[in-house]
Amino acid sequence: MKIVPIPAFNDNYIWLIHDDESAVCVDPGDAAPVLAYLEQKQLDLDAVVLTHHHNDHIGGVAALQAAKPDLAVYGPDDIDCVNHALKEGQELNLLGQVWRVWFVPGHTHNHLAYILRIEGKNRLHVFCGDTLFSAGCGRVFSGTMAELEQSLARFAGLPKDTLFYPAHEYTVSNLRFALSVEPNNEAASKALEAASKIPTLPVNLSHEKAVNPFLRLEAPEIIASIAAKNMPHASSSEVFASLRELKNQF
After folding, report:
1. 135-144 burial by CB neighbour count: b if 16+ within 10 A, else e?
2. pTM for this one?
């Protein structure tokens, strides 16, 4: 089983999972690079899975459906192009593998994530859309701050070697923000140096717990940075909300 990033737009990744014959595509905001890759590798697209409704994640679905009219499209139940609506806790069998569906609202009210366990392997692979980024998280649009915090906490409970596949390469900017609130974080400093030279995704949970401020709400230096800006910091939820507001302005 192979998991391939297909670059799109300025900083999107469309993730393609395939077994050298059939493929599943995650969040195809643009059909053209997906169709080109499928043709190059002589792959049949079995299904599309969507994390949420933003156009840079679903904009290519119509063209993919035009190329294959019986294409299965999985995702939240309020996206028009979805023909297999999903809810929390459902399991899909795609490419002979089990994909578990998690409801992870916050960035949007209807955001889903897909937890893939490849047969014979212990490591989990999480297609997390815009909920978690390396060293960051998505903005709150139609969800709530509390939902986003809970969704990230849920991710944080997964095994430390879990690999996350965010939909954007925002890592350099996110690490710069992380160091603005935790300047003595050596792991984040080293990660920023590396991120300037190589692609950073996928990323494992152990690394994220070391560098991602939204998973480090108890770090004294982060709390002190927020307090110094006279922002709410009396609880982890206040620290989270203050961090997200600071990142919005960064």
Report:
1. bbbbebeebe
2. 0.96
